[in-house]
């Protein structure tokens, strides 16, 4: 924010949250222009970049996310000038199951033809999807979940407090318990082999998933990182077949 001239004047008390409209240009998302300016991925550094209505973004704009998602930075070259800007953000996206929004709805029929649904979902490339570790299809939400009844005590906040505590313990276990320099999401190569070795039933399960789903090498490594995190959330040192199965369940295919 300071590099872009948007520093609020005092130390921030929260991480950035950026939610650009789907009409955002390539330069608006990754940076560029004249004079050279930071894009949304840099403004979201160490925070969240939320892309709603993901298939509505232009293809070339979405494809520009691929390298920054892995490298954590973006190198811009414009008219003889170069700038290397930080872009270590958490990507969160949302989309409808189809253009009408009712594909798979338990009560309202979908009005989209199969080829229209397929074309809509194919706006998001396989390489970009590979870089999204968690993919979930969310069923329609009930009124009780959207607006729970008022409670006289703070019992409704207790599950949230427990989840927060589990998350903090998970992060401490990743960094201190195993002496990791990086969180699970950034583990590669030998470090990943050390904290999430593939053995026995877990290896067989992953081999079957690779064959049936046609998973790429990047997807396999992503599943291992998610499985390692699921084990950490449960306070378990060893990654089991159950953790790998949970990671697969959290990676719903988008066809």
Brief description of this entry?
The chain is of the alpha/beta class. The chain is built from twelve helices and seven strands.
Structural class of the helices, strands and pairings? Answer: alpha/beta
The low-confidence runs, each spanning 5 or more residues with pLDDT under 50, are none
Which radius of gyration do the C-alpha atoms yield? Answer: 21 Å
Number of β-strand runs: 7
Order of strands in the sheet with most strands:
1-4-7
Morphology call: globular
Helices, by number, come to 12
What percentage of the residues does DSSP assign to strands (E)?
5-15%
Spell the H/E element sequence.
EHEEHEHHEEEHHHHHHHH
User: Which percent bin holds the helix content?
Assistant: 40-55%
> Which sheet architecture does the biggest sheet show?
3 strands, parallel
User: Average pLDDT, to the nearest integer?
Assistant: 85
Distance between the termini: 37 Å
